Amino acid sequence: MPPHLRLTSVTVGTSRPRELARFYARLLGWRVTKDEGPEPGEPEEAGWAQIGPPGDVAGLTVSFEYERCYASPVWPSEFGSQNASQHLDIEVDDLPAAVEWALACGATLAGFQPQHDVRVMLDPDGHPFCLFL
């Protein structure tokens, strides 16, 4: 029998971890649960941060970790370019309202939209994420 394993967090590499944590916390109505600055000798934007569901709700958290050599992914992917190795999928009840909210929080609408009931957005550091019905 395998040991008990429990997925607790997804970590996203970024050039601006604390800024991205604040962006996603606002977008989702979550809270920043960890916010640590750079280690000695690291650039000011280094460090890591984490967001979690509101209140005492237990669940998956999202962490944002500084990547010194971060390159924004290209959407849609192109051969020879940095590709998104993962993205966040966010279910919504009202797609146009969710897009407007994401834009107000600092996201941008991706130029390529592959499905009529999904909107691909880009966060402030260029990671794609999907809003879907």
TrEMBL record:
UniProt keyword terms in alphabetical order: Dioxygenase, Oxidoreductase
Top-rank taxon, per record: Bacteria
UniProt xrefs under Pfam families: Glyoxalase_6
Domain spans labelled VOC: 6-133
Region entry Disordered, spans: 34-53
Keyword Oxidoreductase: yes
Matching InterPro entries: Glyas_Bleomycin-R_OHBP_Dase (IPR029068), Glyoxalase_6 (IPR041581), VOC_core (IPR037523)
GO molecular function: dioxygenase activity
The protein's name: Catechol 2,3-dioxygenase
Lineage, broadest ranks: Bacteria, Bacillati, Actinomycetota, Actinomycetes, Streptosporangiales
